[in-house]
Amino acid sequence: MSRRIRALLYIALAITLVLTALLQVAAQPDVTVPADWQATLLSDCDTTLDFTAGRQPFAVGQLYDSFSVQTEPGARIKGASLKWRAIPKQAPPMLCSAFCIDSHCQAISLWVKNPEGHQVGLALSAVETDGSRYRSSLIPLGDRRGWRELVFNLQELALAPGSFDENGQLDFPLTRIQLCLANTVPGQASTLYFDEIHAHWPAPPEVMLQTFDTSAQVAAGDVLTMRCTAQAAGSAPLARIRLRLSLAGSTLALKPLTFEVPPAQWQPGQTVTAKAAISLPALAALGEYEATLEGINCSLVPAEGVNLSQKVQVTGAVQEPASLRVAGLPSQPHLRLSDEVIPALIARPSAVDRRLLARLNETGCRLLMLDTTCSWDPYGVSPDVWLSGGRFDFSALDERIAATIAAAPDARLLLRVFIESPPWWDAAHPGELAVFADANGRLSTVNRAGIIGRKATTASWASELWWKQGSVALVTFIEHITSAPYANYVVGYQLAAGERGDWVCWGTGQGLYSDYSPPGAVAFRKALQSYYGNLAELRSAWGQPRVPYDTPEALQETDWIRNWAQVQVPIVAERALGRRFAIWDPAITRQVSDHQVFQAGLTAQMLSYMAKAARQAAGPDKLIGAAYGHLLAAYHQPAAIQNSGHLALFRLLETDELDFLTGPSVANRGQMPLATTATDTVRSRERLWLPVSSDVPEQLGLAQRLLVAEGALLMNLSPDGDDQAIAELVKLADDVARAPRQPAEIALVLDDVSACYLASDTNLAQGLLCDQARLLDEIGAPFDVVSLADLVAGELPPYKFYIFPDAFVLDHKQRMAVRHYAMRDGQLCLWLYAPGGIDEALTGQNMKELTGLTLSVLSSKRLPARIVMSGGHPLFSPNISGSLEFGLEGELVPLLMATGAGCDILGTIQGTSWGGMSAVHGEDFTSVHSTVPGLPPGLLRSLALAAGCWLPTDRPCYMVRRGELMVIQALQSPPCLLFDTPVDIFRAGQRMDEGVTEARLDLSPGQTVVLRVHKAQP
To answer: How far, in whole angstroms, is CA 1005 from its chain's centroid?
Structure first.
């Protein structure tokens, strides 16, 4: 070997030794865990299943511009490591663990690398089973780019801002931990690596239990007292002991012991005395309980002859299980708790906050909704219970319910039960997972656009295996609740699944298309076989020869369907054709609308399946409900209305097991919320519609409006709520329960089948199904929201003014039924876009048969989706006198043009002389058509007046009325109330006007007032 080569080798070796030494120095820990502490591995970071994005539960919208978690084999302490990369948008990123920490550890350690050297900091957040959040101080990562070990002392964690914990101490188990990145720059990517996450704890000090005395018998509703003496073997400053009262392994109550001498002041060998008192719930199950002492951060050792558990007999009168049923539908909905009528007002605290629960109890709020899961909670709000196979652990669930009852003993509980496949199930059944497609058509079982809650995979909703096993988990959960000692406090269940628990298909909020899994394809084929019967009919409907050619050339060059196995879910390129067309013409793209109808029906079918299982387990006297039917919801993705699975409300209402439906309320320009479904049809089917009001009671006026309009309300509550505002709602709800809803003269008629024919990637769906309803809500008059199916069946009361935003898909018989019921006795019908146009194809002949108007389909030109009106027509008087323009932004294909043959042209398509809004007058009806939605409130008021409707206000505003109750919110100027007979008006209990037929309200824009109106005495 030459001297030069030898020198080069020595230099290379020296460089290697130096680099190795540097790496070893860089990898030295900052803080060490004491050597005598015990440790357990929480995650080796060799898989991403343990981690997901941290976000607020049920938050709408994305917090990050980008978020990814993946394993990295090449950068590690041991095995692989976890690579976390995020670009913050609205908030600093959080990495959330999917594992539960059961042991009472005192420290969490992890290895971290900051390869980009960004000046960021890392904090650890721990979340208890009751939702309380604790957070560590921030550890700056600085510009150190190598591996370093961080140790978070859990005893130094403090309550996070906005969180509350009654005992002010971190309690186990923890539902999750979160790694919180701080000092990030919005729009700038940050990358961190993690490895080897451990929990640590010292050997617990021994505390000898010398005596333990408790009542041998106590009556339900009374106080169970206990007293004990103990002796510490040495220093035990963190020692805690608590008393657990349980029946057949299910916890009824937990109470920490109060020591006469605090543990931090104990001397070795000193005997200390402790006591505790548990107020037993009045409706507790009777029987022989176990009263057990448990050591926390200490080892509780009983002296000879002393037991850690004692028997306690709970006695009293036998309690009948509480029953809660819906009553008073459709005009006067309320709930009946056993024989007592109670308002349909339900409070849903954001966490098991004992302080808030106690305040709710004082205000008289009788019903509480508590978040739980029968399997696994994708948002980490409630403790997971389905650990594997047939193994369930309900201990943390029992503790959460026990804490709720202890804080609000007068309340009854509805449990919101999340039904979601746990990560271990996903790993065991990869062929049963949903397959998503992004906008480019890339397929994956992993949600590419954003992490789903705490994980990135989910069971396919078409999986028969998941239906069966998920329903078993649900039944197991309900059977546990039914046999628990607190069973009499649980009066119902809301079944939850999908995004936010609202039965919205996973991936919808991220703009993904699903489901391309094998179960999804099989279910789609079964649905088509059931509908079409045979391949010939399917091919004919999908624009293929009924009997395809079988020549070699045809077999090679065509994609004609020759067997059912060839039928697949339409690819994204087909499902996203809305970039060119706003509505699916079945003569061209029947397979896409068929799939959208199928997907909606599949969601409703799965929900119905779970509801039947829940009903069988819970019995007839418990409420069963779900969030569904959100046709008017303003989803954030263009294809969300079509892909959500919410377009089968009227089929779901055939499920007898459901007592109530619930859903979000769409805020109208940040003001009055609007219910998101055909609420009057829901009530007519003897179901309660339970709208959700967010930010209560910060936005008290919005909650009051929803409560009066719908007769029911589900309140989301934060810990800092105003007790007076809640008390006002409770009092108002009691009045609403006795106030019937007046019939309306205006009907908004919805059709979920037609909505399945709206294409994605256009703003037509939102304009028709959300924005137009919002504008109608501003006219200052009541209106009903009903289904087209009920109108066709003749099951609706007569209205004077019908508005049809999406009545597209009707056959000849259905068109004739609509004309029979809605176009007589001087009624006025307002049709939007393509009324009745779709049968076997989209044609003007179909539309003329329904509306009486001659409409032509303009599909060869891209035209502005806006209407220009000059005013002055009798239909516009007195609200529209000058020019008016409305519609959608951008262009729309196809548009509908009114030819003017036998009709009045009321407005033209912007930039053309073609009719965009037209009217025809029959012998006893008026038919008005607009090719685009967006008709403003003033125009809608004019049409309502032309229909002969009574408008109780003189200008646009928000107004709802139930019995003597009215809620008014001003828009631009204060409205004047109009009455056909003299009335007395009361505001805040004080008489405002007496014997008046008009009343001008002194309201600023956006201000809300609740009035009581009595007919004046002669």
So the answer is: 31
